[in-house]
Design brief:
Blueprint: E1 13-17, E2 20-23, H1 24-37, E3 44-46, H2 52-65, E4 68-70, E5 89-92, E6 102-105, H3 108-111, H4 114-121, E7 128-131, H5 138-150, E8 153-155, E9 163-166, H6 168-174, E10 183-186, H7 193-198, E11 203-210, E12 214-220, E13 226-227, E14 232-236, E15 239-243, E16 255-263, E17 269-274, E18 278-281, E19 284-287, H8 288-295, E20 301-311, E21 315-324, H9 330-338, E22 349-352, H10 366-373
């Protein structure tokens, strides 16, 4: 049987989402009812198109039966030729290039990390945990299942939330409407100074991982990221490789995450962004995410995305797509940027966009951006 079980019982609130509420007793009944409504010999459930409350019931029903459950983006499903016998969760990469890959993980590959995650975050049964994105984005599914494992309540109501899982850009909006919030858990994208300042007075937890290897490192801000116990890392030619007990089925022992990173003393990890974020400007490596973080501190820039653009002389130059506040122009932003960016990091081409394209995890969808602009 699957090792995931609910951490609450009776009248304690479990789900408060889309105006629907379940106590743990009612959730337990709903799970049993779900199982009874499905074909008894079904070996895979599919929660992909369900509302969040129903999707969580479906996932818990699969866990109770010890079968697999699909939680994918219904608009971008990967090809999945087979289902491993030990699989519980059938998920996918976020598809930043537009091509999500199918992944399969055992229940243990997440549940075994829950105690360490609990120690880091402090989430307990008294909490109301706000989920701010779709469940097919694994950081949100992980947060929801961890909350139910702890006996906490999963919600979409910021006014009730004491804990939130969010990417930094979403966190800034949540903070305006969540008066009871005590802890913010951020992932998916590196924490920026703006989100950090906005969360002043709230315990801020940042963790780093990937869909393939799950949790890798975490920290209580302002401490540095440190590898989780049992996780090992190496940096090879500037890129991070991870060995983890939390990896998905079929992943090699040492998995190349694809991020630029530095590994220091006391298991400290510094992540500088995706390898695809490395822009070679005449022999100088410019990290796109570093440029984005700087641009987003400028007045009038709501969001920024940076990619490399081919250049006959320099190899590549920096292209910036910026989402501007009303009344602010590109020329004004460009002038401010010259004062804070190095010559190599200064974008040669600027494009104003209505919204920066992002994956479900909140990361810049660089593949789509390149297709649009290059």
């Amino acid at each position: 049987m699957c090792s995931f079980e609910l951490g609450g019982a009776g009248d304690h609130p479990a789900i408060d989402f889309d105006g629907r509420t379940y106590t743990y007793g009612q959730l337990d009944e709903a799970i049993q009812e779900w199982i009874g409504q499905q074909a008894p010999h079904a070996r895979v459930y599919d929660a992909s198109t369900l509302a969040v409350a129903d999707a969580l019931i479906c996932v818990c029903a699969a866990a109770r039966r010890g079968i697999a459950v699909v939680v994918e983006n219904p608009d971008a499903r990967p090809l999945r030729p087979s289902v491993p016998p030990s699989a519980f969760l059938l998920v996918a990469t976020s598809g930043s290039t537009g091509r999500p890959r199918p992944l399969a993980r055992t229940a243990a590959s997440w549940v075994d990390s829950f105690p360490a995650f609990t120690t880091i975050t402090g989430v307990d049964a008294t909490d109301c945990v706000l989920i701010t994105g779709p469940l097919h984005a694994t950081m949100h599914l992980f947060g929801a299942l961890h909350a139910l494992w702890r006996g906490a309540c999963v919600t979409d109501n910021p006014a009730k939330a004491t804990v939130v899982h969010a990417v930094p850009a979403v966190l800034r909006d949540v903070l305006r409407t969540a008066p009871r919030l005590r802890t913010a858990i951020v992932a998916g994208v590196a924490l920026d100074d703006g989100a950090r300042r906005a969360a002043d007075g709230i315990e801020l937890i940042e963790y780093y991982g990937s869909a393939e290897v799950s949790l890798v490192a975490a920290r209580r801000v302002p401490e540095p990221l440190r590898l989780l116990e049992g996780v090992d890392a190496e940096v090879r030619d500037g890129l991070l490789y991870v060995r983890s007990p939390y990896r998905v089925i079929g992943t090699p022992e040492w998995f190349g995450v694809g991020d630029l990173a530095e590994f220091g003393e006391n298991r400290e990890l510094t992540v500088r962004g995706r390898g695809e974020c490395a822009i070679n400007v005449g022999g100088t490596i410019v990290v796109a995410e570093d440029v984005e973080r700087i641009l987003e501190t400028l007045d009038g820039v709501a969001a920024a995305a940076v990619v490399g653009s081919p250049h006959a002389v320099f190899g590549e130059t920096v292209l910036a797509a910026v989402q501007l506040d009303s009344g602010v122009g590109i020329d004004e932003v460009r002038s401010c940027a010259r004062r804070v960016l190095t010559r190599e990091a200064m974008p040669r081409r600027w494009v104003s966009v209505a919204a920066v394209p992002r994956t479900a995890n909140g990361k810049v969808a660089r593949g789509r951006l390149r297709d649009l602009l290059i």
